Amino acid sequence: MMNIAVAQSGGPTCAINASLVGVFREALKVPDIDAVFGSVNGIEGIINNHLVDMKSLIKSTEDMELLKQTPSTVLGSCRYKLPDRQDDDSVYRKIANTLIQRQIGAFFYIGGNDSMDTVNKLSEYFREISLDVKIIGIPKTIDNDLCITDHTPGFGSAAKYVAVTMHEIIRDSSVYSMPSVTVAEIMGRHAGWLTASSAVLHALGESAPHLIYVPECKFSLEKFLKDVRQEMAKHKAVIVAVSEGIEVPDGVQSGVVDNFGHKYLSGIGKYLEESVRSEIGCKVRSIELNVMQRCSSHLCSRTDIDEAEAIGSAGVRCALNGDTGKVMVFRRVKNQPYTIVIETADAGEIANKEKFLPTEFVNKEGNNISDKALDYFLPLIHGEPDIVIDKGIPKHFTIQESVLK
């Protein structure tokens, strides 16, 4: 008999709880697994020996289904960077002590690039000290920038939210006779996957977004204003999708960084709004989609939620097979009909690395997305789960705050 532990890390998504359900539901099938512990606030819960008994919280199939439709991280999250163990292994020893004390034989970390760094570091440390605890990474990020995997859980739902919201912005902006420009700022630090996904509207016959700017392409304000003027000659209401991570002058964004050295990005939309107002002089507004694109479960993708659970389940099977230091990944077999398989990759091949938009996904001018990208994006936003509604509002699974303190 052994116990297992699972934690969630990084930015919230619509699908990260579905992966938690995948781990939990699969564990229930295994007679050799006794307790399923949830680590509160990511790896910090393991460090501080702050774990909760998931079986006492998730008591039925109905609870699991409700948790699947609940956005964000029910166990809380963190952005904790493990130090280099050669410099300081005290945190590693705390982690090992918790796992030994709780008789935990496998630990599953649901997160993005930085979380996979934790998976890699812990698995290497445990090999060095001959501690038989399997460490498995379950991918998650709306940025879709993890290497090797075709896509990441959380991305499809975020992309669907972006597409639906942009579609509504198009309708809203079309009602007046005066020329206008609307700039929508979309998340994406170094990779423009989410911003690029707004191009799925072209598959519906929409000409908008008329301009799409991603971090993979060099950006200049002069070229942007020229592009806008050209589109205004063709369209009464010009719609622009721009990634928060495109290159802008110093001072536009805050410059504050997190524990991993990532800058907090915000402000490019307002900067471009002010530039259009100053240089072109038309009606203009900017819209920052902000955190809504991460956790809008009422617009989530069924494909995304189902795959998120499946990859969590696969992680448990991987650990029981004796693997460690692995990250579960999707490999796309074909687009039509859309088919994927779940495989593994070494955490070291994914940690602290980024996957960027393929060159062929961007047009030659660097201001829009090519039709070649649509076959990639469209299957990921497909389907709508059956959402439980309470008094007209989607119902969420929650854990009492006192349990998580």
Topology:
Layout: E1 2-8, H1 16-28, E2 33-39, H2 43-47, E3 51-53, H3 54-57, H4 61-68, H5 90-101, E4 104-111, H6 113-128, E5 134-139, H7 155-173, E6 180-186, H8 193-196, E7 211-213, H9 221-232, E8 237-243, H10 268-279, E9 283-288, H11 292-295, H12 302-320, E10 326-335, E11 338-346, H13 374-377, E12 389-390, E13 393-394, H14 401-404
Parallel strand pairs: 1-2, 1-4, 4-5, 5-10, 6-8, 6-9, 7-8
Antiparallel strand pairs: 2-3, 10-11, 12-13
Provide a brief overview of the structure.
The protein has about 400 residues and is an alpha/beta fold. The protein contains 14 helices and 13 strands.
Give structural attributes.
alpha/beta, 2 domains, seven-stranded mixed beta sheet, elongated, Rossmann fold, about 400 residues, 13 strands, four-stranded parallel beta sheet
Tell me what you see in this structure.
The structure is a single chain. With 405 residues, this protein is an alpha/beta fold. It folds into two domains: 216 residues, Rossmann fold (3-Layer(aba) Sandwich), CATH 3.40.50.450; 138 residues, Phosphofructokinase domain (Rossmann fold), CATH 3.40.50.460. The chain is elongated. The model has no long low-confidence stretch (mean pLDDT 94).
